[in-house]
Amino acid sequence: MTQTTEAPAPGITGRPDAGALAPRATTFAKALNAALADAMEVDASVLMFGEDVGPLGGVFRITDGLTARFGEERCFDTPLAEAGIMGMAVGMAMNGMKPVVEMQFDAFAYPAFEQVVSHVAKMPNRTKGKVRLPIVIRIPYAGGIGGVEHHCDSSEAYYAHTPGLTVLAPATVRDAYFMLREAIASPDPVVFLEPKKLYWSKEEVDLAELRRTFDDGQAPRRIGRAVVARPGTDATLISYGPSVPTALAAAAAAAEEGRSIEVIDLRSIVPFDDETVCASVRRTGRAVVVAEAPGFASVASEIVARVQERCFHSLAAPVLRVTGFDIPYPSPKLEHFYLPSVDRILDAVDSLQWEDGA
Amino acid sequence: MTQTTEAPAPGITGRPDAGALAPRATTFAKALNAALADAMEVDASVLMFGEDVGPLGGVFRITDGLTARFGEERCFDTPLAEAGIMGMAVGMAMNGMKPVVEMQFDAFAYPAFEQVVSHVAKMPNRTKGKVRLPIVIRIPYAGGIGGVEHHCDSSEAYYAHTPGLTVLAPATVRDAYFMLREAIASPDPVVFLEPKKLYWSKEEVDLAELRRTFDDGQAPRRIGRAVVARPGTDATLISYGPSVPTALAAAAAAAEEGRSIEVIDLRSIVPFDDETVCASVRRTGRAVVVAEAPGFASVASEIVARVQERCFHSLAAPVLRVTGFDIPYPSPKLEHFYLPSVDRILDAVDSLQWEDGA
Amino acid sequence: MSTATNEGRGSLIGGVPGGTPSAAHALLPSAEPVQLVDPDGRSHSDQRYPLPDGGRLLGAYGRLITGRRINDQANALVRQGRLAVYPSSHGQEACQVAAAVVLGEEDWLFPTYRDTVAVITRGVDPLEVLTLLRGDWHAGYDPYEHRVATQATPLATQLLHAVGVAHAAKLRGESTVVLAMCGDGATSEGDFHEALNFAAVFHVPVVFFIQNNEFAISVPLKNQTVAPSLAHKAIGYGMPGERVDGNDLAALLAVLGAAVDRARDGGGPSLVEAHTYRMQAHTNADDATRYRSTDDVERWVPKDPIVRMRAYLRTLDLLTEEGEQSLADEADAVAATIRKGLNTEVQVNPAELFEYVYTEKTSQLREQAALLREELARDADADAAAASGAAGDSTEGDQR
Amino acid sequence: MSTATNEGRGSLIGGVPGGTPSAAHALLPSAEPVQLVDPDGRSHSDQRYPLPDGGRLLGAYGRLITGRRINDQANALVRQGRLAVYPSSHGQEACQVAAAVVLGEEDWLFPTYRDTVAVITRGVDPLEVLTLLRGDWHAGYDPYEHRVATQATPLATQLLHAVGVAHAAKLRGESTVVLAMCGDGATSEGDFHEALNFAAVFHVPVVFFIQNNEFAISVPLKNQTVAPSLAHKAIGYGMPGERVDGNDLAALLAVLGAAVDRARDGGGPSLVEAHTYRMQAHTNADDATRYRSTDDVERWVPKDPIVRMRAYLRTLDLLTEEGEQSLADEADAVAATIRKGLNTEVQVNPAELFEYVYTEKTSQLREQAALLREELARDADADAAAASGAAGDSTEGDQR
Ligand SMILES: Cc1ncc(C[n+]2csc(CCOP(=O)(O)OP(=O)(O)O)c2C)c(N)n1
Ligand SMILES: Cc1ncc(C[n+]2csc(CCOP(=O)(O)OP(=O)(O)O)c2C)c(N)n1
Ligand SMILES: [Mg+2]
Ligand SMILES: [Mg+2]
Fold it and tell me: Which chain C residue has the Cα nearest residue A330?
């Protein structure tokens, strides 16, 4: 596996994208919407369905305008039943369609868990690849938006632990577009995690240009490819999805204190890009994994485990984690105590045994 | 947290238990059955229900005789619906009962996932502890029995990652008895994982004696307490449930090659006994985690992560894992390629960089 | 094939399948929803359901007035940013009130997120009820105090809890009845199906009460079901189904009251569908103009539950001008309490995040609580240094 | 309230809720299961369902004979340890055969673990069907070859897949009908509910076919439901329900055939419940004496589907002695093929474990496959050393 040759993603800070023509401020949400519309236009077998994704355009408006443009046979509301949505998607995918389904919020995907684990993930293997399931499960994901209970779960570990699923989490507007297009084009089922708190983040990108790049096959592959979101030399922060901007902010703050921190944006949780991650850690000798989900038996645990297995002799200190606590996601007034913060990341970096022989 | 003072568990090899009177060969399954019967006898609020647990006594006969003895109001069959079973258990526990439910096989617990994650695990927290849910979810668990698809999943990571659940996996006949009693007595919801392949394993134990010990409050606590199943000095194998006998066998084989391997039986995945595990690894300086589940984002990942975070400077080599592959559980003829084997564990131990300066 | 009926009174397991066609048809709902007082306030007699007496209606009408006031007040507080979100039951208050008042003290109510008015009507302190929506971390009230479960968010899940509560009560020989609420959308979830089936098979005293308000967020009823009515689902579980005008307080009291009596008398579960309408957006965060016209909504204005009950009570002189004033005053008082209560900021203690996840904190949570405590102490020290004061106490937050 | 009917032919979204009482009642099943040929082989006429003609019955009868033979053969192979487990449909063969033969080539069948005979009747190679139960790792046959989904194990999950397949076909304007099978126990699962509701709302051509064999492993029907019948669930989704004698091949062909025609003509989904009986234990691993008496089972012996159809066909001289002999020979030939096929050991290639999890192996799986390859190579070397031969080839197992 080779690392993408594309330049580091511009982050969510709105840095202008040098390659794009006529850039303008585009939100993450709008990029997803454009990716869906473009995919539906180029491939008539792409369908979009779920709860409130029709005339309403989804509670986050990611499917805005799709019913009007493609008709209610291509983008439609279902009865309110997530297992039903997922199971119907399996059948449609068996029969030539490419369903994209929306689970309204992370915790409302749990009723579909059996369908996801026992069928979406396993049907291709069970049939020796005869039945492929090109399904994309879109999940507005994670917290930081002041949501109430059940609306802010970070559920990636459940999916990442389930063999057969591809699990993606974009962190930038460009990646939102390209990764959703790539997910829809993938012959394998993809769990596509959309960090809610980034929906309204903006970048200067030209969606028409992104579309041309993708349709021309010029977009470098992102599934299985991490990217160095900010280069550095002293330590590596490994993050994905909603934690990438936090990690970048921490790196910026550290820079002011004279520490050069590299930030990796995984983008793809499964497959995992060992090469990019380990190359960085071997260079810096220190690593902290940043993720919102409760830390126990999580994707963050996996990253720590892999990095120390593969980079043990390059490590000057244990690989640390800054994750959510092992508690239910807290309410709006308390979420900032729970979420990985710049300070908590800097504390972790500080404890990476910088003194000789500590 | 202090480590249990009880002697190492006798393993599943049937070594006589010195403390017991009139010992006789007892299976793991029988010990679970006795624990249920004893719990139901001492506490009228303990109920047992699920699919085929009534007159049939469960497909593994763990509930054998309970309906006959306690009546169909205390041990009964439900309609065939796992979310229904779990949701009804929540209501019963809210209203003074201590439900023990059986999920017929690991993969058939998935329909109940929403109830488990959104309610069983969170209701106590949501109500500031006003509503406690003393539910035990018994799951015949993991493989090694030549079962077909859906009947051999190792699903512990899904539960261990969910805050609010206690997750247990006994590996010995004594522990099967004591841990199920302790689980039923716990005010918190417990996911109780019963390694299927150990159901027919035997030990010389006197169930009446175990009962007296437990009822007299003399049984040392096992929730949150790992145990050293075999002492050793050169490296530590960390295992739980179905992997414990495999780890013990590997340690025995290593002993013949002159290597002294310590084996830890976690027993309790959540809460996790850092103290026992880290004390061992700090002593031996080397560790391998052994578990059946696919390794990615698993409980094994967590153990590796914690151990290297806490014992970094004691480690002579990276903490390695011997786990299931990241594939669906394979069929009877292929499962031995998938399962952690003595050879694979010995290979991992061999690669723990025993040469100076490697 | 079999001719046994499905009446399993008294036994733990209900009857056996089968039944004569006529017995089966008795489980079907009436062709039209039961209506006792029409939108103009005229009463109609119904053979099966006698009109509740005037005192009962007047009492319930008072709760209706307060219920509407609570909805209006909560909406206002959302606009002022004092509540995070409020799913209003404006227009559905007759359902809300009836669901609460048909129950006795020993009974249980299982509400959803939209049923705040029902919960308050049952006696729970309004400020406690609104706790969660203010941004605090827990559900707000003690479910055991008034036997009201927490307001369920994951749809239809609570129906199974209701069955479990009823089952436990039945096993102990208690006469508890459980009324479990859900929306039309929630009937599509698998848990709805499993709950009704479990209730019927175990013959437990649960009244399932669907508020069919014609929408699930933006999705209209016709995309949710093509059944003749939602109450027609009951026969598939072997329990009776009934339909009622959900804006007719009198009919709701009669129909739900009968269902509760039936359940208490060992008659087992039943399903009641109330036909009503969600007059406002799903919540303040929703934009209903994207999926329905104001005309649609306007059509329901004349059917308002308050208007018709007021007309009925005034016509019969059960309600006087002073009576109305005093009900309005009562409602104002409740609204004032809410306003006042929500003026004081929620005090949250971060240490509590770790307190209730397990009965006893795991060593993992002890470590995590300590980490947060240290951070807060450092912040406090920094603040103190900045203000050159002292603030050591906050480190003790989680020691209780 | 509304008087629209639920016929949404042609439109993607079905009809609207409501409907006149009589229209609604038309969705209810007949009071007694449809029976065209009784246990003594006498035919009865039925206004709605004409008796299938002799040729059709004779053809299907032949499949019945083969089906029974397959069940017996598979049971024998389990006893000999050549099959891991076999959930037999002994006694239910009429359902098995009818489900397969009412479908056209363009249609899809969604079977469960117990429906091996239906799958074989549809044309799938018996040896392929038994692949999984022999211990191989995959489902055995290509679902697209005969349009037969894999035999589902997680109960009721396949019903939703069936809806999806039908929905996709409908969107493309194809005339495919999908017949989806499940047991009485599976009707309790949430997925059953969601599948029927989705099918009705999207008005897709699916025939849901319940084989009510009165048991779910050890659990009798009365602990599964107290509904008048399982077919009474249909009205709750706005689709017609029908009941049929599940041991009457003629009635099954008629009723299922009508349901398939209806679906193909744009009439939408329907639910058919067949009343039959599981004559043997759940699987060979089950001990049915723990939960039912031999008397219970004996009562069903005279209702055997083969006995009555044979009597009927013999009486009408549609079946001769030679005819019987040739059907028996055919059945023997199939059994012999199975026996012979299962005599050769399954050859498994461990490298395949990693081949189909993703279309392209992840780098993680490449590493894991390499680990296994090395182990096997070492073992092979050791074996080779022991046998002083050479065995380098097996290391290449996963290079294709
Ligand atoms: C399992 C689940 N899926 C999705 C949601 C998101 N959601 C919240 S309310 C709602 C609509 C519910 O409609 P209905 O049951 O008719 O109740 P109403 O809001 O009309 O009172 C949806 C889809 C949820 N809360 N739970
Ligand atoms: C979701 C799920 N839960 C439990 C099981 C275990 N199980 C396999 S068959 C069976 C009984 C099924 O009964 P029924 O649906 O009546 O079909 P039958 O076996 O009678 O053909 C059970 C409980 C399963 N396969 N899937
Ligand atoms: Mg609604
Ligand atoms: Mg059955």
Answer: C137
Contacts of D299 (CB under 8 A, 6+ apart): none
pLDDT confidence tier of residue C286, bands split at 50, 70 and 90: very high
Residues 6+ apart with CB under 8 A from D360: none
Contact B181, B229 (CB under 8 A): no
Which residues of D are catalytically annotated? 278, 282, 291
Range(s) of the domain holding residue D371? 350-399
Look at residues B47, A120, D378 and name the one whose alpha carbon lies nearest to residue D395.
D378
Q: What is the DSSP string of D151-201?
A: -B-STTHHHHHHHHHHHHHHHTT----EEEEEETGGGGSHHHHHHHHHHHH
Query: Does the complex come out with an ipTM higher than 0.85?
Result: yes
Distance from CA of A345 to the nearest CA of B (A): 15
Model pLDDT for residues D142-161, shown as the tens digit of each residue: 999 999 999 999 999 999 99
Same domain, C252 and C161: yes
Q: Residue C136: what pLDDT?
A: 83
Q: HSE on the CB side for D200, CA within 13 Å?
A: 32
Helices D305-315 and D54-79 sit at what angle, rounded to 10 degrees?
150
H-helix or E-strand spanning residue C394: none
8 A C-beta contact, residue A294 and residue A327: yes
C-alpha–C-alpha distance, residues A122 and A116, integer Å: 8
Tokens of D204: 């897709």
Which of the 8 DSSP states describes residue D37?
Answer: B
CATH of the domain at C208: 3.40.50.970
Q: Which of the pair, D19 or C52, is modelled with greater confidence? A: C52
Instruction: Spell out, as residue ranges, where chain B has pLDDT lower than 50.
Output: 1-20, 357-358
**pLDDT score recorded for residue C110:** 98
Q: What is the per-residue pLDDT for C394? A: 42
- C302, C323, C342: which is the final residue of a domain? C342
B310: its two tokens: 């806490």
| Single-letter residue type at A61 | R
Alpha carbon C28 to chain centroid distance? 25
Q: Which of D306, D201, D188, D189 is nearest to D247 (CA)?
A: D306
Same domain, D221 and D116: yes
φ, ψ (nearest 5 deg) of residue B189:
-70, 140
How many domains is chain C built from? 2
| Region of poorest pLDDT, from A37-41, D62-66, D84-88 | D84-88
Of A296-305, C107-116, C385-394, D137-146, the one with minimum mean pLDDT is: C385-394
Q: Strand order of the sheet with strand B136-141?
A: B75-77, B46-50, B98-102, B136-141, B190-195, B166-168, B268-270
Residue B5: predicted pLDDT: 30
User: How many angstroms does the Cα of residue D229 sit away from the middle of ligand 4?
Assistant: 14
**Beta strands C178-183 and C108-110, pairing class:** parallel
The per-residue pLDDT for D231 is 98
Is B219 within 8 Å of B211 (Cβ atoms)? no
**What's chain C's length in residues?**
400
Report the residue count for chain A. Answer: 358
Last residue of a domain, one of C342, C369, C385: C342
Same domain, D38 and D113: yes
Q: Are residues C40 and C131 in the same domain?
A: yes
Per-residue pLDDT tens digits for C81-137: 999 899 999 999 999 999 999 999 999 999 999 999 999 999 999 999 998 888 888
What residues of chain A lie within 8 A of the CB of D349, using their CB? none
Q: Which residues line ligand 1 (CB under 6 A)?
A: A 51, 80, 104, 108, 111; C 114, 153-155, 182-186, 213, 215-217, 278, 282
CB distance A297–B296 less than 8 Å?
no
| C-alpha to C-alpha distance for B159 and B269, rounded to whole angstroms | 10
Residue B342: list chain D partners with CB under 8 A.
none
Q: Chain-centre distance of CA A252, in angstroms?
A: 22
Residue keyed to tokens 């473009």: A38
Q: C333 and C364 share a domain?
A: no
